[in-house]
Please model this.
Amino acid sequence: MYEELKAIVGEENVSKEPEELYIYSSDPGTMPPVKPDYVVMPKTTEEVQKIVLLANKHKVPVVPMGGALSLSGLVRPLKGGIVVDMKRMDRIIEVNERARYAVIEAGVSEGKLKAYLDKRYPSLRISTPDAPPIASVTANALIHGSGRLSQIYGFHSEMVNGMEVVLPTGEVCRVGSCSVSPYWFSRSPLPDLAGLFIGWFGRTGIVTKLGIKLFPKHRYRDVMIFVTENPSYVSDVIWRVAHTEMAEDITVWAQPKPEWAEGFQHTTIYVTADSEEELEFKEKIIRNALMDYIKQKEGGFLYLTPGMKAMFLQEPMSQLVRFADVRKGGGFEYVGAILPVDLFDVAYQKGLEIVERLGVDWAFSIRIIGRSHCMMFAYAYPFNRADEEDVERARKALHETNKAVLEMGGIPWKAEVPAQQLILESMDEGARRLIKRVIEMLDPNGIMNPGNWEVE
Amino acid sequence: MELRFDPDRCIACDSYACLVKCQYLNYDFESAREERIKIAKGEYSRVLEECKTCYACEEYCPYDNHPFYRIVELQEQYGINLAPKPISKQLVKMYAAKEKDLAAIREVGSKALSLCLFPDLKDNVKSKLFEGLPVIMGRQVFCNLVYLHFANMSVIKERARQTIENIRKYGVDELVCFHDECYGFFNSYARAYGIDVPFKTVHLYEYLYNWLKENEDRIRKLNVKVAYQRNCSNRLSPETDRMLDKVFELIGVERAEREYDRENGICCGAVFQMWGEYELAEEVQKKNVEDMVKSGARFAVFNCPMCYVALAERTAKAGLMPILVSDLCRLAVGEMPKIPGRG
Amino acid sequence: MMEKVNYAEIVHRCFRCGYCKFPSDYSEINCPSYAKYRFETYFSGGRMWLIRAWMNEELEWSEHLGEIMYSCSTCRNCVEHCVFKFNEQLVDVFIAARSDMVERGQVPKKVGEFFSNLAKFGNPWGYAARRLEWVGRDYANNEFLLHAGCVAAYDDRAKRSLKALLELLDAAGVDYGVFSDEICEGNEAMVMGEFGLFEQLMEQNRRRFEERGVKKVLTPDPHAFNAFKNYYGMDAVHHTQLLWNLVKSSELKVGRVEGRLTYHDPCFLGRWNGVYKEPRKLLSRIGSLYEMPRNRKNAFCCGGGSGNFYTDYLGGRDSPARMRVREAAETAEILVTSCPVCLMMLDNAVSDEGLELDVRDISEVVLEALKS
Model:
């Protein structure tokens, strides 16, 4: 099989050496490593297709991988086989400026697309997630990521206009407008086949190209941070700010370190505009929306120095990754709970209860998705990877949080395998059966990232 | 630790300067008379709610009776929240000296420059003006007077002795204070509360004047007109305002006569923004900068870094060049200062 | 001498987030070995995790592991862009791990050759000694000892640039001499983790410097410059610094050169020693300088550092040098650098790519400007 893979991608792009197998056996999260048999790095859709056909022939699992930054171990080859690192497929194929979309290969990183647009299309932008810049635009959209523009436009999966997919059986197919037209402008008005590939963690095929929406980039961007000391206010604060439709992005953070932050909730509001007047106007409207809290002295805006502003305005915010060094041990993982915003207080209290009981370090980091339609409530726990007990504590906190989230009516995002099982247990029976049928129909040999979304 | 405040002095006073001269409270003579009696007696007064904490009455009081400190004490006593509670509370936590701050204390020699809590300025004091002066800064040397704006006298009192002790541990006999507020703390505040300060403090203006005087041959007069933003804490050492005139004279700078300077100085607005009083902030900033422009000045000159942050952009947009006093002096000795915080 | 870091306390702190793969704007892959290989093993995060696995005996040493370790050209892009507090120590970690591997005799074949030639002959190729005899100016209490470094002493292309430098020094009346039997200063041995060999070379050099009264070293080789300045603790001057001083003070009266120039920052001059200004001032004085998208702290390494100019782990079709000259060709007609290693690597890459790009050392451009 090694020889056959070599013939497909070239000797330099396939490995079965212990070093590569070791590195590709895990991501930076807490899930235990599982080694692949091979790592391959295709350059073209044809190569991906040949790899999938080969895997079918040998009935060997195939696991597509982007930045490997889900932290929940989604690209570990649970049943061995071939990990397909997509990052060599990194061409930006087309930017349609007027229709505001880009067509990219699946390995294009968030950083590369951002830099490309900044340079060549300064009036366009992507919704950058707060993942490190090597994160893959495609993988992030496929796992329902969210980012800087999600408060306005929703999950990144909703920004997908179309895709080219290598099906588990090796056929290549296009979904979205690009299946009919030369333009990748939308998924409508066709049967929405994209849903067969979004949120499936690679169980239904390998997406090789993606059409993704781009959005207006404004000349001015500013940040305001509203501080409260009562979590029961926060969902209302968000509701009010979202109502103004003046904010581009709303996030909330609460954490015990640094000390001054402990006990407070920081609602971070990003505002963009094309003129100073517009910016001032928008900020004024937002301040007015929160004036009741200010007048009652229950909340106020943090005075931000230019240095602090610069840190909050960075895209992506590198500060967030530094959380991995809280316990001087290079690790953190989070439960990204997708919840109605109204549950903020419940979610917050539950989180505090878990961290206090288990004695873990923590940070809560929340992004509003849609005009307070829902939120991604990240319960993040750092750990020291050199200390197995510490890793285990974090793992336990994550598992308990996953359970708690489901109990309160939320759903863990990009869930680890154990949490996927918890979700499936809570799932409507009809939906569960449908998932199973879709997988069996598309992937008769069961080769695509098996072990994920496994319905017994 | 008790404020040296004599209620009888207030009651006997017939100038009511503290209230009638106030830049913000527009009381007639009669109301001022009534309110100052309440303050003297320690009763609730509308002043406590309406005070904008500009420190000016400390300067206006003809008897050095500390009306402002008295007001702040009463504001706290009557539970007045000037700012949203989370903002005040967070600020208290933010600037509390931590263990690692205390661990940073080292003997530095007999003289030092206190940069207070302004790390953004560390490049701005890398200058021949400050040559040979070790710089100390951080929460451990922070004077905490900022809480005067937040009706929180007790935290200042609580930390006062420790701050002084921390500085003593640096081994200094003489401390040059970059910020008026620190100087005000070691002098005005310490006197008002009877706290002993075991080292000498030098105001930045005095230091600059002495240095420039000794190095007069190195000065190339700037020959410019400047608008000066007199900050709140300079009210605690009004005598230093004269010293600034002498500094300006040495470097060939004309201090524009304008409405909002000297005794009539007004706030930069930063505190009002923290309080959530955006309209007030906008109003004072607007009239202040318009006044600067009207004065025909080329530079907007600040001593307080906080005023600088609050007004730099606005003055620049109005066509003035924002600059710190010390940086203006550096220009006069041929140095090219960096923009604070931007390197 | 550099202190060996205790990497056991650091390696597990790497999150493998990948910021270190990029320049500041994330536009391209800026880690030379990752840019070539693209396996997650070949960037600093991969190396940190592999070192940990090797240290914990989860992975045995292998030729492949050795190649991964030595394909790092120690360009310090990762140091510049890692977001963690241990960023400054990243390259030191790799050097220290290599040194432990060396101590256990675990070095890949080509690295072994490099070391043994260096030990036996004072240069990586095992060429003859008396490498600078042709200069004909033996050091005799001059102001500067001119140290060419191995590549400028032996590589034909780099040698031409050295000749240009000598001509400039003569024109400006600089007082210098060379050791005709110059030996390697050992920078590569050091960063490749052969500390013993480095010490030995340093010892030999120091003894000769002492015997012959050398106080100040002038070198066109940033690798040597790094060693003299940071490990030997000597007064060292790089030729870009000296040339800029000579031009600035009009001791060299230069005209202008034709064509669009761009400048490639050598890692050991730029990221290692912070010399960015002088070469740019020089080039701006004598011609039209255009920056490549990746410059200064974001410069993309030629892939020659840490012995890779010899071991060639970063060679081939996707070599960093070939990527770099493609970038240069989109920017300018003349690619200027100030390092014999970069010069050799980039010049070869231009031939391999078949580009119409002129690769020159800064001294060659200044010489042209002097004659124009």
Remarks:
- Chain B has three domains: 7-77, 85-204, 208-332.
- The first helix of chain B runs from residue 7 to 12.
